Amino acid sequence: MRINTHKLKVKVTDEHIKKGMPDSCDKCAIALAVQSAINKDGAPWQCYVEMNHKLLEASIILKTWAGKTWDDEVTKSSFVVKREHQTRINKFVQEFDRFFVTRGTGESNGTRNGFIPINCKPFDFELEVIT
């Protein structure tokens, strides 16, 4: 079995933050940013971000197409996230889910009660994808 690895550079932009939907595994700002990076990479992957609220840690899950729909049997990829990037991602997701609200269809997000974001600002991180 051959192991392939490559680095995927992810940029979370103002546009991802604006279009992202809080408490959505596949439409939050980070999932949108990873999906944008994947689309540029040319790989047929789908991204989900799940938050473990007990551990206060976000998990990024990548699934690859394995059938007729994304819900068919999937192959998960593993990857490495540097600790400082994981900490940044965790803080971003916690703040985004807690203080941002979705208005209408999710196309325009704002903050609750005029909250000024501390962690929900554009940033970059890297995934080392192992397939």
Low-confidence stretches: none
Tell me the fraction of residues in β-strands, as a range: 35-45%
Q: What fraction, in percent, of the residue positions are helical?
A: 25-40%
Radius of gyration: 15 Å
Largest sheet: 3 strands, antiparallel
Q: Helix/strand/pairing class, anyone? A: alpha+beta
Amino- and carboxy-terminal Cα gap? 10 Å
Shape estimate = globular
Q: Could you report the average pLDDT, rounded to the nearest whole number? A: 77
Topology of helices and strands:
Elements: E1 5-12, H1 14-19, H2 29-41, E2 45-52, E3 57-64, E4 75-76, E5 78-81, H3 83-99, E6 100-103, E7 108-111, E8 123-130
Antiparallel strand pairs: 1-8, 2-3, 3-4, 5-8, 6-7
Keywords:
8 strands, globular, 131 residues, 3-stranded antiparallel sheet
Description:
The structure is a single chain. This protein has 131 residues and is α+β, with helices and mostly antiparallel strands. It has one domain (5-130). Helices cover 27% and strands 35% of the residues. The chain contains three helices and eight strands; from the N terminus they run βααββββαβββ. Strands 1-8-5 form a three-stranded antiparallel sheet. Strands 2-3-4 form a three-stranded antiparallel sheet. Strand 2 (45-52) and strand 3 form a beta hairpin. The N and C termini lie close together (10 Å). The mean pLDDT is 77.
Describe the structure concisely for a colleague.
With 131 residues, the protein is α+β, with helices and mostly antiparallel strands. Helix content is 27%, strand content 35%.
